[in-house]
Amino acid sequence: MATKNSLKTPKGTRDWVGGDLLLRNQIFETITTILTNHGGTPLDTPVFELRSILSEKYGEEARLIYHLADQGGEACSLRYDLTVPFARWLAARSDVQHVRRFQIAKVYRRDQPAVARGRLREFYQCDFDIAGVYDPMIPDAEILCVAAEVFEAFEVDVVVKVNHRKILDGFFEVAGVPRDRIRAVSSAVDKLDKAPWDEVREELLEKGIPDEVADRVGGYVRRSGGMREMLESFASDAELRANERVMEGVADMTLLASYLVAMGVADRVSFDLSLARGLDYYTGLIYEVAVTDSADNPTQVGSIAAGGRYDDLVGMYGRRPLPCVGISFGVDRVFTILNARRQKENKPDLGAHAQVYIMAFGGKEFDGLLLERMRVARQLWNAGIRAEFAAKVKPKSLQQFDAAEGVPVAVMLGQDELEAGQVLVKRLHVGDKNATTKDKGQLVSREDLVKEVRKLLESATLEQE
Amino acid sequence: MATKNSLKTPKGTRDWVGGDLLLRNQIFETITTILTNHGGTPLDTPVFELRSILSEKYGEEARLIYHLADQGGEACSLRYDLTVPFARWLAARSDVQHVRRFQIAKVYRRDQPAVARGRLREFYQCDFDIAGVYDPMIPDAEILCVAAEVFEAFEVDVVVKVNHRKILDGFFEVAGVPRDRIRAVSSAVDKLDKAPWDEVREELLEKGIPDEVADRVGGYVRRSGGMREMLESFASDAELRANERVMEGVADMTLLASYLVAMGVADRVSFDLSLARGLDYYTGLIYEVAVTDSADNPTQVGSIAAGGRYDDLVGMYGRRPLPCVGISFGVDRVFTILNARRQKENKPDLGAHAQVYIMAFGGKEFDGLLLERMRVARQLWNAGIRAEFAAKVKPKSLQQFDAAEGVPVAVMLGQDELEAGQVLVKRLHVGDKNATTKDKGQLVSREDLVKEVRKLLESATLEQE
């Protein structure tokens, strides 16, 4: 328990500030641009929902939901993901037949935090979903294309693992798994990316699956290979061909394969029969995006994005069905990768530093010229220029130069120049190691100040490039 | 209580989507730009804090804090404002001696919602605070300058009402209010902007303040006038001049007045002795920004921004003192004003619509050319162009034209043209009511497609201007 004077953030949460926050915002902007190109419109929902909206949507994971205390009024809980609030919104908005929405927001899970791996109790998700009735697999293919574009933009090498719930469930049926055990078997199989088959097999036996059935399950889900070959091998297996669910999935995946080629992303997609996804609500295509370059993944973060088709979730609210397909980007994990890379490359701080530092100098009678510095500051602020000055009545010269460290341009005020209606503007030669001559600056009138400052800022930018 | 099938958001919360959300984001961007020009650096804190962090900071208002349920572990509550989390962060970060931070985030209050007036239980605040030891009133003046710049940017006419806690408390002392009743009297006086003096006087009597003392309080706090005249009148009053607190406040306000003139914002600032601010933690200058144009304020939203100096809050955490001054912008109220104006002016939707619609046409044997449409889409997406196509294998011509409503450029595919390696690009003359000739389009090669589409998009933008 926290003592009264404990100044930490709650377990599994953190503050974001400075370069970290600016990098995170850059990530959001990059993703937002791509999603907007794909017709995405933003949605923002409350951080808590009526408890009834969240209940019975998450299976075993529901124990991780944060509840608000009962202080009278409605029973509410913090959102666990962005999919269920989206489905709630869709269910209520019967006027919306087709929508591509995205949401970048924090979600809450009372999980064991693993900070080093970028797993917290409060973390950001970025979801993109396409809702509406369309010809099969066209929106699904576009979502995978979006995933490819996002990680191309971040220059992170990834593989998109895909599978199909109907193929998987059909396999389990053919293998002899009882219908009511299919989700339990599925969640055991989903661990195959972290655990060897022997362990998964053990879990199946513990769940009451007979030896022989478990072995047949293993035979199916451990197959891998190219998408086309895999699909052909299923179609040539008489037992699988006789299973309606398998063949529906095969038809979907055959369409998908051709669409992915047309969209130029087929080479980044791999058919992985062991991919099952934990959540109950998926009904068709499912996928996870994994990082392939181990340099980017020293802490072995799991999937960096994941999703699938969920055609029945909106209908669960009893108003109307609406098929959906979506993807959730684990943006905190993207942050972990890009931040590690930034630190390795020793990239400069992302902060928006001051562009101009306003100084004042004088002799014995020097009064600090504070009001004059304020007037100049307002003039520059009004022009949209990031200007600072010492918040001291009589600043020392050295203090002002120290504070101007890293600032490219100085505006220098002196009593004599002011009386002549002029100020000195000057490059501070920051980061310009080749400069052999020191800029002596130039005297300009107050009317020309903004124009001259802009010129110097431009030349400073050019030198940095 | 909500029924199981209730699809609403919790009381006092709402979804944000479409033009509303885009407008809200524009507001955030405008404010962020100004705060960044003033050296602001962003901070993001968790949505909930340890309960001990929030306790004893809000006086009577603490009853409005949302608590998380006890599910084991730490006792936590949703943040009530952004000031206390900032103070908690500052108290812990002893390496930070000076900082200008801003935070735009949702805060939570179990208040009676007044949706029409833009008052909700979940709402955004945007805070800008300057922490650190500086010469008196320089950061305070800059904060008021920031407030002026923000509302200038939104073209909302405002008045910034200012007062000083020390002057107010000194008045109360001189009037004969017992020390331990000063905060109670202060919170009654703060109601003078909504209630007549008689009602406030009644409240003072109920709070046990003698008649004569109440009348003297009324005599002080109902004075108004220009800043300089008011300050001179205090200084010429022997009883007030003898009160140390009043004179400290007068010295601060005299400095402030000269700084506001230098920054060119004095004409928007009014000295209002009845302004008291509810929260306990203010120690010096306090201010509220009110909308002056009634056309912008039909629902009589109260203050649209407010804040003050709070030099002791960081020290309350027992680590170190650090003086701070800050302002909180009620961005949901800004939204209410700008949205009403947008609807009155019937401004077009803010949505980022598609720039290009990809269509396919053909005769009897037409197969829909879906894969070709996908290839073209990927080419345009890769170039950062917002492109769409019908998610149908064989779309009808009319369907495609309907879907392209409002889209400025079309790329049209036909089997013959494709075989010749070409596609047709064409302006759709959207919104161009003066066009007398219909654009017949031009055939371009796939290599030139992006270049030609960009040209057409530019010409479309020029025509709209």
Automatic annotation (TrEMBL), chains A, B:
<dbReference type="InterPro" id="IPR033656">
    <property type="entry name" value="HisRS_anticodon"/>
</dbReference>
<dbReference type="InterPro" id="IPR006195">
    <property type="entry name" value="aa-tRNA-synth_II"/>
</dbReference>
<dbReference type="GO" id="GO:0005524">
    <property type="term" value="F:ATP binding"/>
</dbReference>
<feature type="binding site">
    <location>
        <position position="277"/>
    </location>
    <ligand>
        <name>L-histidine</name>
    </ligand>
</feature>
<dbReference type="InterPro" id="IPR045864">
    <property type="entry name" value="aa-tRNA-synth_II/BPL/LPL"/>
</dbReference>
<dbReference type="InterPro" id="IPR041715">
    <property type="entry name" value="HisRS-like_core"/>
</dbReference>
<dbReference type="Pfam" id="PF03129">
    <property type="entry name" value="HGTP_anticodon"/>
</dbReference>
<feature type="domain" description="Aminoacyl-transfer RNA synthetases class-II family profile">
    <location>
        <begin position="1"/>
        <end position="348"/>
    </location>
</feature>
<keyword id="KW-0963">Cytoplasm</keyword>
<protein>
    <recommendedName>
        <fullName>histidine--tRNA ligase</fullName>
        <ecNumber>6.1.1.21</ecNumber>
    </recommendedName>
</protein>
<feature type="binding site">
    <location>
        <begin position="281"/>
        <end position="282"/>
    </location>
    <ligand>
        <name>L-histidine</name>
    </ligand>
</feature>
<dbReference type="Pfam" id="PF13393">
    <property type="entry name" value="tRNA-synt_His"/>
</dbReference>
<feature type="binding site">
    <location>
        <position position="129"/>
    </location>
    <ligand>
        <name>L-histidine</name>
    </ligand>
</feature>
<dbReference type="InterPro" id="IPR036621">
    <property type="entry name" value="Anticodon-bd_dom_sf"/>
</dbReference>
<feature type="binding site">
    <location>
        <begin position="81"/>
        <end position="83"/>
    </location>
    <ligand>
        <name>L-histidine</name>
    </ligand>
</feature>
<dbReference type="InterPro" id="IPR004154">
    <property type="entry name" value="Anticodon-bd"/>
</dbReference>
<feature type="binding site">
    <location>
        <position position="125"/>
    </location>
    <ligand>
        <name>L-histidine</name>
    </ligand>
</feature>
<keyword id="KW-0648">Protein biosynthesis</keyword>
<dbReference type="GO" id="GO:0005739">
    <property type="term" value="C:mitochondrion"/>
</dbReference>
<dbReference type="GO" id="GO:0032543">
    <property type="term" value="P:mitochondrial translation"/>
</dbReference>
<dbReference type="GO" id="GO:0005829">
    <property type="term" value="C:cytosol"/>
</dbReference>
<dbReference type="InterPro" id="IPR015807">
    <property type="entry name" value="His-tRNA-ligase"/>
</dbReference>
<keyword id="KW-0030">Aminoacyl-tRNA synthetase</keyword>
<keyword id="KW-0067">ATP-binding</keyword>
<keyword id="KW-0547">Nucleotide-binding</keyword>
<dbReference type="GO" id="GO:0006427">
    <property type="term" value="P:histidyl-tRNA aminoacylation"/>
</dbReference>
<comment type="similarity">
    <text>Belongs to the class-II aminoacyl-tRNA synthetase family.</text>
</comment>
<feature type="binding site">
    <location>
        <position position="109"/>
    </location>
    <ligand>
        <name>L-histidine</name>
    </ligand>
</feature>
<keyword id="KW-0436">Ligase</keyword>
<dbReference type="GO" id="GO:0003723">
    <property type="term" value="F:RNA binding"/>
</dbReference>
<dbReference type="GO" id="GO:0004821">
    <property type="term" value="F:histidine-tRNA ligase activity"/>
</dbReference>
<dbReference type="InterPro" id="IPR004516">
    <property type="entry name" value="HisRS/HisZ"/>
</dbReference>
